[in-house]
Specification:
Number of helices: 20
CATH topology of the largest domain: Rossmann fold
Largest sheet: 5 strands, antiparallel
Radius of gyration: 26 Å
Helix content: 40-55%
CATH class of the largest domain: Alpha Beta
Length: 559
């Protein structure tokens, strides 16, 4: 089918299909996300090794403005940032615009206006390509955002859509202007204090060290990767190891403080029994009283370009499944919608006065101690978090008392922490070999854990792949070292018990990590520092010794 006919079909049926539930089987979905991109990919001036073509009609619900983007992967690979060519349909489906536009999610307003001016100066006055602000997509917020993002456009109407030949010529012309801008200008200036992953970890580690807490750079790297993988992390360990402080200093190092409202400490109380203690409730007068987390969510929604950090201090003083289950469920509903991360409602309009969603720039870190005053975690919670253990204490780390240079905080935006992957296919499109390598190892681990009923599901597999993909992208740690952290944080916390099956599984996991068979001997001096996964092996050995001595074992010290 011709490109002309594909566009006309979308414009003819979209409004009708929009009244029905969004489904991948709908014709509009098929046309915008598959047929039109495939037709564009056949054009000779769009080599597939350089240009990526993708379309969207929304995810979960229909979007007001469907689009099909043509992205030069040497410049940008996301519709959230940078500039690219994109076809935008008007809300009433009477007009189609071929545009040179910018990502509206991660581009500051002043930067957007500067780029628009620069692009428009390169385009000569002519009848077809317009460089004014007269584009009209509709009245929704999304339509207005897209209108502001457009630097140049060619307008088509449903009643006068040109031939395939003209559509192709127009696209080639627009790409020509796009290439001129790329070639004649310096690379887009990054936002102030934009850092690579490696630079960010260096800065955060230096800042925390200057505060007097001893954490290795590798530990800071792991915390950073864990937050980027998923905005919910559990920090465990004995009291006094600085679990709360490391988060406070990390937040402060990137410009998030209690004073500006971007770092919030919420002490958990033992009498919390449901989500109202955290999110809020409707009082006897019918007025909504927001909880401490709701206040953070509202503020974070107003500033999507800034990260917000929340510490749930002593998170397991109350049962986490009781007061935090709503947040966990909504966190799992996160999805891409028009290049942005969105979620299901956290609180409905009837309760909070407006529909409240979980913004992607809110990061929740729970600190936990395991003793007689606290509650254990269910697998439901452990599946949804990276569990980082801090038990090492180095009291003689006194460098911070000496005359060391002060490390100033930097103003760093949400882009550093923002998730790029929500689904396994997002990772597989970039690094299929990594996904296949990780899956092969996890299949072996599941074989060991299955007799205990402790084997992992798809969620854990996907999040381990996300973590390792970010690590590879930033060249932060060797693969085996990063996988060792994943094994410690996503697999071992699931293992507990008192019978021979637990012993057998732990011994097999030890062999998986080191290549050494224990055969019931746990007190021998073993040198496995050069093993494939030494951190996990050390933890497993401690768990086995505890099982032998106490008749019960778990990941948690003090439980």
């Amino acid at each position: 089918m011709s490109l002309h006919d594909l566009f006309r079909q979308v414009m003819a049926i979209y409004e009708q299909e929009k009244r029905e539930k969004l489904s991948k089987e709908r014709r509009s979905f098929q046309l915008v996300t598959r047929a039109i991109p495939e037709a564009l990919k056949t054009l000779p001036f769009l080599p597939p090794d350089r240009y990526m073509v993708k379309g969207s009609v929304g995810q979960g619900v229909w979007t007001d403005v469907p689009w099909v983007a043509v992205m030069d992967q040497e410049v940008t690979d996301s519709t959230q940032r940078g500039y690219y060519i994109v076809y935008l349909f008007s809300e009433d489906m009477r007009r189609l615009y071929l545009t040179l536009a910018q990502g509206v999610t991660e581009t500051p307003r002043d930067e957007m206006e500067r780029v628009k001016r620069d692009i428009r100066q390169l385009i000569p006055a002519e009848e077809r390509v317009r460089t004014n602000d007269d584009i009209r997509l509709g009245e929704s917020k999304r339509a207005k955002d897209y209108e502001r993002s457009v630097a140049a456009y060619i307008a088509y109407s449903f009643d006068d859509l040109p031939s395939d030949e003209q559509l192709a010529r127009d696209l080639e012309t627009m790409i020509g202007y796009y290439r001129q801008y790329v070639e004649r200008t310096e690379p887009m200036a990054p936002p102030e204090q934009a850092l690579s992953y490696r630079e960010a970890v260096e800065h955060i580690h230096s800042y925390i060290s200057a505060k007097g807490f001893y954490y290795t750079k590798e530990e800071v790297t792991n915390l950073f990767l864990s937050l980027k993988t998923k905005p919910f992390v559990i920090l465990s360990g004995i009291s006094g190891t600085g679990k709360t402080k490391i988060v406070q200093w990390l937040a402060e190092s990137v410009g998030a403080t209690e004073d500006n409202g971007r770092f919030t400490l919420i002490p958990v109380r033992p009498d919390w029994h449901d989500g109202s203690d955290l999110l809020g409730y409707v009082d006897i007068k019918g007025d909504f009283k927001p909880g401490p987390l709701t206040n953070v969510i509202i503020e974070a929604g107003k500033h999507p370009d800034k990260p917000y950090f929340v510490v749930l201090d002593e998170m397991n003083l109350a049962r986490v499944e009781h007061y935090f289950s709503d947040v966990l469920s909504v966190m799992e509903s996160r999805r891409w919608e028009d290049g942005r991360i969105t979620s299901s409602r956290l609180l409905p309009r009837e309760t909070a006065g407006c529909d409240l969603f979980l913004p992607p720039n809110v990061y929740i870190i729970g600190t936990v101690n395991m003793d007689e005053t606290t509650h254990p975690f269910s697998k439901k919670v452990l599946d949804r978090a990276n569990t980082i253990e801090f038990n090492r204490v180095q009291l003689d780390h006194l460098d911070f008392l000496r005359d060391l240079p002060t490390v100033a905080p930097l103003s760093i935006g949400q882009e550093l922490f923002a998730a790029r992957y929500l689904h396994l296919k997002d990772v597989y499109a970039r690094c299929p070999e990594l996904v296949e390598t990780v899956t092969k190892q996890l299949v072996e681990i599941n074989r060991i854990l299955a007799p205990l009923g402790a084997h992992i599901g798809y969620r854990v597999r996907d999040e381990i792949c996300f973590y390792l993909a970010y690590n590879e992208e930033g060249k932060l740690m060797e693969f085996d070292k990063a996988f060792d952290y994943c094994l410690m944080q996503k697999i071992l916390p699931r293992v507990s018990g008192s019978d021979a099956r637990v012993q057998r599984a732990l011994e097999q996991l030890f062999t998986f990590c080191t290549g050494i068979e224990l055969n019931g001997e746990y007190d021998a001096l073993l040198d496995f520092t050069y093993a494939k996964y030494p951190k996990s092996a050390d933890k497993i050995l401690h768990m086995l010794r505890r099982l032998a001595n106490d008749g019960f074992t778990s990941f948690w010290i003090g439980s």
